[in-house]
Amino acid sequence: MFNKNSILENIKTLFYALIIAIIIRSLLIQPFYIPSSSMEPNLLVGDRLFVTKYSYGYSKHSFPFSPPIFNNRILFNEPKRGDVIVFKTPADNRTDYIKRLIGLPGDKIQFIDSNLYLNNFEILKSKISENDIINCGKHALEVLTFEELLPNKKKYKSVYLKDHSFKNSDQFIVPENHYFFLGDNRDCSKDSRFLSSVGYVHKDNLVGKAQFIFFSSDRKKGSIFSFWNWNEIIRFDRFFKKIL
Fold first, then answer.
1. 38 part of the active site
2. In terms of CB atoms within 10 Å, which end of the chain has fewer, N or C?
3. Domain 4-69+78-242's class?
4. What is the per-residue pLDDT across 23-40, written as a single tens digit (0 to 9) for each?
5. Where are the domains of the chain?
6. Catalytic residue among 53, 60, 99, 209
7. For residue range 121-160, what is the model confidence (pLDDT) as tens digits?
8. Catalytic residue among 38, 59, 189, 192
9. In the annotation, is 99 catalytic?
10. φ, ψ for residue 113 (rounded to 5)?
11. φ/ψ of residue 139, rounded to 5
């Protein structure tokens, strides 16, 4: 025989747990999964990371399904150049992308002979390796790996194909209240260079700042349920790795 009071208490407990989970996910921290190689070598397919939602304040995109709670961003904090950020793509205001912030409002960005220029100054980069292998979709490619240095002293690794397939561009001028993003895997990233699909990202589309990896697995080597192969499938060395 069912105890109605017990069932009611269980439903209330589940309801409260759901509300708490939504609050944590919307206001504090949210997990994300990396499905593509556009941020290699810094983020790999199969990385699972935590993103802090409070880093840049809140907009409707801070909440599940982007409800029209308010029109603008509240408690806004300006992101820093070089931050790795999750945002909603302007094309549909629904799809989550993760890229590195390169251009702030008013900045001028251009590629000249495969070199990145910011406000008419070349971004300094030091070659680390000439023989690294990264992924681009289903393809494994040899790349040149560099350490790039932004004007605010932010350092990170970026990779370019040896034939520098993305060599020259028009000059991008970032509009007011917008940002310009690039993938660290420069020749295998759909980002702000492609105005029809991503382009400039409005500040209201920012979801949060990527902070650290909490779990990582290589799905090419098998399912995580194959526990007997965990030494090959799970990338234990990436656990709790801070995202630079």
1. yes
2. N
3. mainly beta
4. 777 778 999 999 999 999
5. 4-69+78-242
6. 99
7. 999 999 999 989 998 888 898 999 999 999 999 999 999 9
8. 38
9. yes
10. 50, 45
11. -100, 140
Q: Before 90, cis peptide (omega within 30)?
A: no
Residue whose pair of structure tokens reads 């007997």 in the numeric block: 228
Q: CB-based contacts of 163: which residues, under 8 Å, 6+ apart?
A: none
State which amino acid sits at residue 141: L
pTM, entire model = 0.91
- Distance, in Å, from the CA atom of 107 to the CA atom of 120, rounded to the nearest integer, reads 10
Rounded distance between C-alpha atoms, residue 215 and residue 50, angstroms: 10
Handedness of CA 204, 209, 214, 220 (dihedral sign): positive
Short-list 187, 191, 241, 174, CA closest to 87:
191
CB 68 within 8 Å of CB 59: no
Q: Is the CB of residue 56 less than 8 Å from the CB of residue 208?
A: yes
| Sequence letter at residue 234 | I
Q: And the tokens for 28? A: 């504090």
Q: What are the DSSP calls for 149-180, one per residue?
A: E-TT--EEEEEEETT-S----PPEEPPTTEEE
Per this entry, what is the length of the chain? 244
Which long-range contacts link 101-104 to residues 24+ away (Cβ below 8 Å)? 101/179, 101/180, 101/181, 102/150, 102/180, 102/181, 102/182, 102/192, 103/172, 103/174, 103/179, 103/180, 103/181, 103/192, 104/78, 104/174, 104/179, 104/180
